[in-house]
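Q: Start with the shorter request: fold the first protein.
A: Done. Sequence, then structure:
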Amino acid sequence: MADNKLRMPNINSVNIAGRLTGDPEVKLDGKLLAFSVAVSRSYKDKQGEWQEETGFYDVAHWTDYAERTAGYLRRGGPVYIEGSLSWRQFEVDGAKRSAVEIRAQRVAPLDWPEDGAGKSAPVQKTAAPASRGIIETVIPEEDIPF
């Protein structure tokens, strides 16, 4: 007889674009890049008025390129993040606490710094080494449809 239990896949995937709330911090001998991102969304309330709501998310990006990646990110700068949710427990003054954060697998700045002549210059890529076969492209902010 067939098993009638509902089979549900376990999916843990996060894709967000937002702005850094502060400059990123490089921790643990340059292996961890930690920062927070503000992500806003607009919606209509029951009265039909547009409202805006902003959420703030902590991000942990474990990479051998934390220092270099941090050089392309700054407070207020737009950033795209792909990753998963991670839950952790810890103690503060004997009290147990928990936190949910985004564990980033990809971090891509969405702005283009000015070169010396005042022209837009593409940002160098900082993500995965070529041996992993990942090719990344930074999309200029004006090309993003939202």
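Q: Next, the second protein, separately.
A: Sequence, then structure:
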Amino acid sequence: MMGGDETGKDFAMGEVTAIDAPQITIQRPDNVTQKLNLTQETSLRKGSDNITVDDIKRGDHVFVGGTLQNNVIVLKSVQVIPPEQWNACKARSSAGTSLRPIPNPIRRSNNCRPGRRLGRSHPP
């Protein structure tokens, strides 16, 4: 996905504590406060809907990905997480497992990759 997959360096999740566009601040589950920079290229989503920074509120829970520059994540994507997914992620992180959100149950199989036709067998 993005770089070395280290929490706080190329992805993070947490509760939005401040919004001062183009920067948002989150409190991660490990109680670290992290500043995140939005750019014009940042993808903002809530479920399958595109949103704007004005749609993100204090108290929202987000999963973000980007690159670390000068101790701030420059965001490529922001996903507002629904409460049930946030609770599951928080439980997983406190158990010492991955901080990544539970994957979307609707995932493309190998047969749905671009350039592949359904119903045909392909050599491995």
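Q: Describe the second briefly.
A: The CA atoms of residues 36 and 72 lie 6 Å apart. Residues 83-94 form the longest helix (12 residues).
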